[in-house]
Amino acid sequence: MVMGLRRPSAAPSVPLPGTDQAEISAGASRIGNWALALWLLLLTAVVVVLDALTGNDLPVIPLLVVLPALASVFCTVRQTTAVAAWVTLVVVGSRIASTGAFWDVVFLIGFSALASALGVVACAARIRHATEMARLRSAAVALQRQILRPLPVTTQEVCAHGIYEPIEEDRFVGGDIYEVVQSPHGTRVIIGDVQGKGLPAIGAGFAALGAFREAAVREPELTAVADAVEDAVVRHNAFSAENGEAERFVTALLLGFDGGDRVRAVNCGHLPPRLLYDGAASAVALHRTSVPLGMADLGGEARAAEWIDFPPGAALMVYTDGVTEARDAAGAFYPFDERLRAWAGRDPDQVLEALQADLAEFSGGVRRDDVAVLVLSRPPAGEKAAGCPGDPASDGSPK
Fold this sequence. Notes:
Layout: H1 21-26, H2 33-54, H3 66-74, H4 77-96, H5 102-147, E1 153-154, E2 159-165, E3 176-183, E4 186-194, H6 199-218, H7 222-242, E5 250-257, E6 262-268, E7 274-277, E8 280-283, H8 296-299, E9 306-309, E10 315-319, H9 321-324, H10 336-343, H11 348-363, E11 371-377
Antiparallel strand pairs: 1-2, 2-11, 3-4, 4-5, 5-6, 6-9, 7-8, 7-10, 10-11
Helix pairs in contact: 2-4, 3-4, 3-5, 4-5, 5-6, 6-7
């Protein structure tokens, strides 16, 4: 059945407060009432004419019972009920006017009524299931957003702009994490990606974030912060194993800003950052990359920190593989560095806006992983980060 465009009603219903848009879409019709009526009349006319031509030897009218089944896939319960009632009326009217055997007529009418009723039941079940799944997906995404800090974030040393786009499909929900913490030892930043998908990945990410927030303030050394997060992931994996769940690791990059021209970095199997400076974008080489968090026992070596350049006026971009592994319709990977070089001279929020729009266009709006990106900048030398450009806190408005 070819579907027409849904026509807006004159008085659209107003959703109840707190109703999620995904739940509304789950129960919405995919075909307008006028288009549905047109196709229903057209198909009914075709079947009735064929039934008249074939006569009682080969009744075609029972084919109409397919219509409620089709409607249950694309329509609302109300629309499916209307289709079922119409089909039942047509079958009853055509059989009453026929000269067939009494019990054959009764059986055909009963069969049509039962098939039509089953179509309505199937439609109600489909909408109920779709609504429940939409509610679960929305809950998972809301949980992610509650765990992660809203952006932008301002500290004494760093202005952190960023974008975070979680996947809203239950089997694709990822565990991308980030955090920016002001501590007595400077600003500590983490960005990471939990191995695997689904709600268990969110649980592992929450364990890593909680440990980082505490250790970032307590530990003077960035490597000690990484070790604390490592211990938290290991404990979480032990608890998961007791409950029959798979163990997970977390790739992460930890950065420490002290207001100087260099940044301390501990790389735990994560993607290297990009330096945006003087109108150019370049990959930052990290020479002391260690194993992901949760796998220290397999590494055999203690985690080590290294210094990376962070000159005045520069910005560091850190990200997850939802950016680098995005694909177009042909399966080609997103040309991240090529695109970034074209935007390197822009402000951080402008770079993020361009990246977000370009990613959506490149992938055709189809994503298979969360996207988390932070652009970390600071004011020129000698000034303190009282507020980031574009940060509501910097212009006196509430955050």
